[in-house]
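Example record

One chain of 252 residues, shown exactly as stored in the release files.
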Amino acid sequence: HADDDELRRTDSAQLASFTLGLVAVDAARTAGHTPDVGAGHSLGELTALVGAGALEVPEGARLVLERGRAMVAACEANPGTMVAVLGLEHRRVVDAIAAIDGTWVANDNAPGQAVVAGTHDGVGAAETMVRATGAMKVIPLPVAGAFHTPLMTPAATHLAGAIAATTFAPSTVPVVANVDAEARTEGFADPLARQLTAPVRWRESLLTLAGLGVDEWWELGPSGANLLAMVRRTIGDGVRVGVHDPAGVPAE
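Predicted structure tokens for this chain:
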């Protein structure tokens, strides 16, 4: 049991999200739904790897804990923040902040939806610049640091050691990695180790999934809606099912 303050901590929140994701995956599978391919956004990549059989649940949970604790330490060593930038294409965001020290595009989530992360001063300057460039809205994110940027290097180094001590099995279905938007059934360790300091290429990952023939999209996790909204912006209309608890699983 954890209270609200505890759940807002990066490490606690990640373990809670991972657990809820696996509950939803198990509920879908129990109801007879079998995936053809998988992907996970940021932490969700670990959930996807467990769901695809590449990691056992205890190993996945151990990596989630190692990842979360390392990120907390990195946030304390290298303070930072993140903002969502809406209404500006990815390339224009990249160009707008290129000259600002300590800032990076951390997520390319969907057309007109990116996330900028970095030092507090850098992100403040970036917010001014993207607004001047034409962003419709800039939204501060309730996070503890600048994830998916070089400010997470200490965490990535620690996580790489934990990953090196982990045994991965070939996955039962391809899983698309955040760092390169490529589908694979083995060789998960390297992209997973690089994920904390590399941008999440989610828009490209969705295009990869569509290229593999995906036409029914399931979001299995705590929100049940955020990623499906990104699918809609990137791919267009299709069958979309959002599941965040066992009661939400539709009949086969």
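Notes: The CA atoms of residues 88 and 112 lie 5 Å apart.
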